[in-house]
Write a structure and sequence with these properties.
Shape: elongated
Radius of gyration: 27 Å
Number of strands: 15
Strand content: 15-25%
Number of domains: 3
Structural class: alpha+beta
Distance between the termini: 59 Å
Mean pLDDT: 78
Low-confidence stretches: 1-9, 68-72
Largest sheet: 6 strands, antiparallel
CATH topology of the largest domain: Heat Shock Protein 90
Helix content: 25-40%
Strand order of the largest sheet: 2-1-6-5-4-3
CATH class of the largest domain: Alpha Beta
């Protein structure tokens, strides 16, 4: 007797509907008129929509492709099609980068299976580290080549200052001032080139966080409303205290600058304990990162064209920005085995920087 085919429940084989539901990637079944006729559990999660809301919707409206050139006849193909690294708005989620695969269903003209594979956070972090490493190497070479002649330029300007009139002395002072500014910028660049590990220990983040907030309130954020919402039960973190304060100051300054043209600007600083958040640490396996600090503001947000490269050195959305503040945040957080993320919350219209850090050893 012939064995039952795998699409039947006979002899213990799973039903095709069960297989489709359990697929490890988001999948849709699309009819000839481009209506979605079925969606699996992963699609619900990816789109942040109930299956009942997905079914019956137009696939081109549910998966909105950001690149206009990729849209041409994309959903009307009768042949297998794969598109990699495509930027889409899927369901109710913000823009994401995905791989899209369309496969026609044999003997059913116009019917297709669409698989959507979202790029993982691990992939994004790996790309960020690779780009950061390349930029840091370039920064080290650039710093070495530029800094040597700077002292000679400054010395020559000082010698000239002693033998010129007052008007010319103003110009030599300008040269000295600009040399000092460039030297300070190079010193900041060199922070990225050090491989010296941070010394981390068990720390209560709240005195450190309060110090950063108070410094911000007394200086660059004095015209901004600063709101603190702390989880009082948060355990100690495994961090470097000085690096943590620097991270918070950079994020608060970034938020304050984003609010310069906003009426009633507000920065919200919150903490929380998050269960089940892991990240792969190179050479150390999985690291649990339950301690969350969020710095959010009601500013205009990061421009779309730089969002993907936000933590790379020399990338900035500000006209006079140097693109080093967030790159330093990323490096210091990674040096503490943590993770930093940026997101834009569509419901509240707030920009959020989220820091996830390891708990101190020996704490439950």
């Amino acid at each position: 007797m012939a064995q039952a085919p795998p699409h039947r429940t006979h002899h213990g084989y799973p039903d095709l509907a069960d297989i489709f539901t359990a697929m490890p990637v988001a999948a849709l079944i699309v009819a000839p008129d481009n209506r979605i006729m079925n969606a699996n559990v992963r699609a619900e999660s990816l789109f942040n929509m109930a299956r009942s809301a997905i079914i019956g919707s137009d696939v081109a409206r549910t998966i909105r492709i950001a690149d206009m050139t990729a849209r041409v006849d994309f959903w009307n193909t009768d042949k297998p099609l794969s598109a990699y690294d495509v930027h889409v708005h899927a369901g109710r989620m913000a823009a994401m980068e995905v791989d899209l695969m369309i496969s026609p269903i044999a003997e059913h003209d116009g019917w297709r299976v669409v698989a959507i594979h979202a790029h993982s956070q691990a992939q994004n972090i790996a790309h960020r580290r690779a780009a950061s490493g390349t930029a840091m190497g370039a920064a080290a070479i650039l710093a070495h080549e530029i800094k040597n002649p700077l002292s000679g330029i400054r010395g020559a300007a000082q010698l000239l200052e002693a033998s010129v009139d007052d008007d010319s002395a103003t110009l030599t002072q300008l040269i000295c001032h600009e040399v000092d500014r460039i030297a300070a910028l190079i010193d900041r660049m060199q922070h990225f080139t050090t491989d010296q590990p941070l010394t981390c220990r068990s720390e209560n983040i709240y005195p450190l966080l309060d110090r950063a907030v108070e410094l911000a309130a007394a200086g660059f954020a004095k015209n901004v409303k600063l709101v603190r919402q702390y989880d009082p039960s948060l355990p100690f973190a495994e961090i470097n205290g000085d690096a943590f304060v620097q991270i918070m100051l950079n994020l608060l300054k970034n938020a304050a600058e984003a609010l310069e043209l906003v009426d009633k600007g507000e920065i919200l600083i919150t903490t929380a304990f998050r269960h089940g958040v892991f990240v792969m640490v190179e050479g150390k396996g999985n690291a649990l990162l339950p301690i969350e600090i969020r710095i959010s503001d009601n500013g205009p947000g990061v421009p779309d064209h730089i969002r993907e490269h936000l933590f790379s050195p020399f990338i900035s959305g500000k006209r006079d920005g140097q693109g080093l503040g967030l790159a330093l945040v990323d490096k210091l957080v990674r040096d503490m085995n943590g993770l930093v993320q940026y997101s834009r919350e569509p419901d509240s219209g707030r920009s959020v920087f989220r820091i996830l850090l390891p708990m101190a050893r020996g704490q439950a």
